[in-house]
Amino acid sequence: MIMDGFFKSQDNKHEGTKKLSLKLKRGPLSESQEKSVQKRNIDSILKNGPAKRIAPVSGLTNIGNTCYMNSVVQALRRCHGFCAGLKDCKNQKVAKELKTAYESMSREEKAMTESSGTPCVSPDALLDVVQQRNSMFEGTRQHDAQEFLRFLLSDLQEDSYFEQRPLQHEKVSSDDCAIVSKRRKVDKTESDDTISAIFQGQFNYETKCLECVNVTKRKDHFLDITLPVDCRGGSSITSALTQVCQYELLTGTNKYQCESCNKFTDAMRKVSIAKPPSILTLHINRNRGSTGGKVRAHVQAPFFLDIKKWCSPEEQTKYHLIAIVFHSGHTASSGHYTCATKATGGVDSILSKEWILHDDESSTYMSISEIRDMLSPMCSSSSTAYIFFYELLKS
């Protein structure tokens, strides 16, 4: 389904109200009707105040439930160095089509006039290559934006650098601290490819056997960190990072296999960030596990984040928020994805208070207060933050 822009006619609004009324009387809406309702949830946040200004940024055509792809492509475009570095990526097919899409967007933006409206580019060639590389994305079914992001970044690297993991949606309890990003083996030769230089960080795992008191250390690379969210609400980026990096008791069925004791023992494990990436990607685990539903609680996120307490002391640890992928809907495989990006970048404009909301073909300006409202625990919309992109502040 190709989504309309933000400004719908009054007739469409009345029709949408009828459909919502039918949902209450006749049961669940169809997928297309649900998308229409989720679209209006976003519109309702922005309807007060002055009319939204069209941003001079190209949109991406929705060519059949491809909002998951469009939102990720817009977010990556905002990541410093990503577009310029595509020529260095190993997988030339995906990199070529992604680069072509970005170049087409730039051309459309340069040709834009005040009367022409938001420029738009069709990502059909990129989708074709993605579907050739991974059959999971074939057809017109909605997909998880985080799964697409992982596939895209890992596919832009050499496969040999990664441990093989299934690219399927994992059923992880919302109470678990799951770090489920694709990981690269650290005993391989270090790569200077674009993706590693921008998105790759490093965890340090320190495990202490409670019988022999022997301590073992292990390092592992990551492209993103998955954070838990409390379904009761009150979650924040900082509290979730604390939960991921806190000490964990390994006992019962989860005992540690101690090499010194040569048996399974109780142990304490501590996770810390040994090397922060240039772009810190934080994925909010909204999966309710076996029920297949979505945890809708809003997660508070700072516009400036210091991860010093979870890192090695010698590392640079201050970040600023540059992009957010939002999701509206009851499950990650349905509903609608949008993306908000900081309107300007660079050290001289990190205090910019203007953002752009990308909703498929539509790109409109938003204020920082509107972004803050969308992240607030008091927000009544079902549109919730799903992926955060933080950029490292260089000293």
The end-to-end span amounts to 45 Å
State the helix count: 10
Share of residues in strands: 15-25%
Cα gyration radius (Å): 22 Å
Beta-strand segment tally: 16
Order of helices and strands: HHEHHHEHHHEEEHEEEEEEEEEEHE
* Helical/strand content category: alpha+beta
Mean pLDDT: 77
Give the topology.
Blueprint: H1 10-26, H2 31-46, E1 59-60, H3 67-77, H4 82-85, H5 92-111, E2 120-121, H6 124-133, H7 145-155, H8 194-199, E3 201-209, E4 215-222, E5 225-227, H9 237-244, E6 248-250, E7 256-258, E8 263-265, E9 267-275, E10 279-284, E11 304-306, E12 318-328, E13 336-342, E14 354-359, E15 362-367, H10 368-375, E16 383-392
Parallel strand pairs: 1-2, 5-10
Antiparallel strand pairs: 3-4, 3-9, 6-9, 7-8, 10-16, 11-12, 12-13, 12-16, 13-14, 14-15
Helix pairs in contact: 3-7, 5-6
Describe the protein.
There is one protein chain. The protein has 395 residues and is of the alpha+beta class. Helices cover 28% and strands 23% of the residues. The protein is built from ten helices and 16 strands. Strands 5, 10, 11, 12, 13, 14, 15 and 16 form an eight-stranded mixed sheet that branches. A four-stranded antiparallel sheet has the order 4-3-9-6, with no helix packed on it. Helix 5 (92-111) runs antiparallel to helix 6. The termini are far apart. The model is unreliable at 1-29, 37-41, 43-49 and 159-191 (pLDDT under 50).
Main attributes of the structure:
395 residues, alpha+beta, 8-stranded mixed sheet, 4-stranded antiparallel sheet, globular, disordered N terminus
